[in-house]
Specification:
The structure is a homodimer. Chain A is mainly α. Helices cover 55% and strands 11% of the residues of chain A. At the A-B interface, helix 1, helix 2, strand 1, strand 2 and helix 5 of A face helix 1, helix 2, strand 1, strand 2 and helix 5 of B. Chain A binds a DNA duplex through helix 3 and helix 4.
Chain lengths: 109, 109
DNA sequence: TTAGTTCATTGCAATATTACGATTAATATG
DNA sequence: CATATTAATCGTAATATTGCAATGAACTAA
């Protein structure tokens, strides 16, 4: 075990969980906040800003990139990372629908 | 290692990550969706609905309860679970602010 | 070419998570 | 009381995640 039984759940449930897992680590939250805040989104800046080792940051960036939430552009020896706007918006739609469900009036307990 | 370096991040960043982690498993997504959808939120129903073993569901419920997102009420031999409305709303505020950041106009890459 | 810079990848150790069988605790019912 | 029902807890195995040192790959500059 230690293995999620994905097949028991709907595609939407798995998708929500995947997005949420991406935000489930403070380093990835910090990376995304930094990408939103600044235009200078060079990878090396993130390493200094966040204070984890370069391979660690690189790994977190890879996960966010794999989900399509960010993109990286090679510029000489450095790499510029940014939010992938279109996918971020799609993700927002999915997460908002999940988070913003109406709570049933009749309290059951 | 295998250990998040919480001290490197702000309280808000850690809070966002904790909430997100709660949604980072499809079983917990399914549990919450079910609690929203129905008033009959007996633990045993969730076990049947979701199709994981009872101790597994119980463990997921414990995590959601620990975060304050749900509450459980003992009713005889069974336990009735519901969304903890007030905390859910607070969580929504935090998550919405994170997800709904403005993307800087000037595309950097 | 050689050295320097920047970032990705590899490999590994430590810890966390997931899942469930077995058991326990609490309450109900005959 | 004895038994059944329901859900929590314990213990454990399997897998996943986190973090980093070491290394590699790609480019720049001298």
């Amino acid at each position: 075990m230690g293995l999620v039984k994905t097949e028991k759940f709907s595609d939407l449930q798995n998708e929500i969980a995947l997005f949420a897992k991406a935000f489930g680590h403070p380093a990835r939250v910090a990376i995304l906040q930094h990408l939103f805040k600044t235009d200078a989104c060079i990878c090396g800046d993130l390493v200094h800003e966040i204070g984890l080792a370069q391979p660690t940051i690189s790994q977190h960036l890879k996960e966010l990139k794999h989900l399509g939430l960010i993109k990286g552009n090679v510029e000489g020896t450095s790499v510029c990372y940014c939010i992938e706007t279109k996918n971020w918006t799609k993700m927002k739609t999915v997460m908002f629908q999940f988070l913003d469900q109406d709570i049933s009036e009749e309290a059951c307990c």
